[in-house]
Amino acid sequence: MMVLIFLLAAIVLGSIIVLGLIMLVSSDIRDSRKSPASYLRKWQSSNDSDRIKNYDAAIRDHPRDAALYLQRGEAYLKLKHYEQAIQDYDRVFSLEAGNAAVYNSRGWAYHNLKNEEQAIQDFTHAIELDPSFAQVYNNRGVARFAVKDYAQAIQDFNWAIELKPRFIWPYNNRGVSYLGIKDYPHALRDFEYAISLDSTFVAAYLNLCSLYMRTKDYQQALLYADRAISLDPNDEKNYYNRGTTHYWLREYQQAIEDFNKAITLYPDYDNVYHNRGLAYLGLGDVQQALVDLSKSAELESSSACHGWMLEWTRMIESRPDEQTATRLEQLTALSSPSHITPVCKGVACWIRGNYDEALAALQQSIAEKPNQEDAHFWQGMAYASLGRDEEARAAIERALQTPFPPLLLAPLRWFEQDRPDFYTAYVAPLLQEKL
């Protein structure tokens, strides 16, 4: 199963979307009974780690037995040792003709290594060898979804459904793809149909929660989150989604309780620490927010989103300096380009007094993702610094259309010294209302 995190805004990490990637054991190259009996007995009675040791021994005795490399590759795959699995599948192909199930397994491994191009190639080879292989169409669709090729992903899920009409995962995955293009009616139809096939299908309930969060029907989102938890109370993703829903409803204490449960189940869940930090901000607890946001950045140091939120929260207590600007610039190089990157660049420019450059960067971010409050807020800061007060007000009001912790308005206080006229006319009344 593959899990994707969607970002609804730069400061709050959005709900989890669940897609299903289907792994099949590729044991049909050769009947395993042809392998030595002593090894077969060990394979049947041992776990995957022990099986690998047994396969190692068997391969030393039978170095050209493709079935042994295949089975060891499957054991590596189950253990999430993807590089080793790929090496074994490569060896299989060097010894025997291409096999659809092996291409599928190697594609699975490449996908989990985020090498989607190679994954798509392998899934395509599998389909060429076996055009009736519904699971591989599903898997290629997941890989295409990962590179945001939503139209082709939907087509692959269509093929999988046509070949296997009661195969539940393609309906779920097609629904997720429709979410990617904001086609909510079709997404709703697919998730509900998946549930009609299996009323205990947790992924569809989780995705319906995500759908209703995106359409801002938070009460409905809570109903589906509750249903997901009732079906699987041991999955941290369910509590994460419900906690995020409570956050959007400004029910910060309830959000924190759900995030606590998610962390109990998965202590290294960086996104949960991020969102719990924001919930603490909603309660006015800056110090605990900093602890959680620091933890999220520590757990996923390559995330510009975590680092950016940590820097903005630090600004509640002190004005940023050149070191802050440098750290923001460093964040832009951490992860692949996204709407967060120009926000970090824009705020770094603002700190250095380069307000026109800041506006250009922030506008780039808004063009990529229009409904993000941080870009609009800092756009307002830049406009105000340039004396363009009406545009500043409009940008800040646009930011306030999305709920976020009022404490993050703290940078506006700096205008009491920098722009006393703007502060008196606009900022002071706003802060009095919000804080």
Structure description:
The protein is mainly alpha-helical and 435 residues long. The chain has a domain at 327-434: Serine Threonine Protein Phosphatase 5, Tetratricopeptide repeat (Alpha Horseshoe), CATH 1.25.40. Helices cover 69% and strands 3% of the residues. The chain has 24 helices and 2 strands. It has helices spanning 37-45, 48-61, 66-78, 82-95, 100-112, 116-129, 134-146, 150-163, 168-180, 184-197, 202-214, 218-231, 236-248, 252-265, 270-282, 286-299, 304-314, 322-331, 340-351, 355-368, 373-385, 389-399, 415-418, 420-434, and strands at residues 2-7, 13-19. A two-stranded antiparallel ribbon has the order 1-2. A hairpin with a 5-residue loop joins β1 (2-7) and β2. α5 packs antiparallel against α6 (116-129), α5 runs parallel beside α7 and α17 (304-314) packs antiparallel against α18.
Short description:
The chain is mainly alpha-helical and 435 residues long. It has helices at residues 37-45, 48-61, 66-78, 82-95, 100-112, 116-129, 134-146, 150-163, 168-180, 184-197, 202-214, 218-231, 236-248, 252-265, 270-282, 286-299, 304-314, 322-331, 340-351, 355-368, 373-385, 389-399, 415-418, 420-434, and strands at residues 2-7, 13-19.
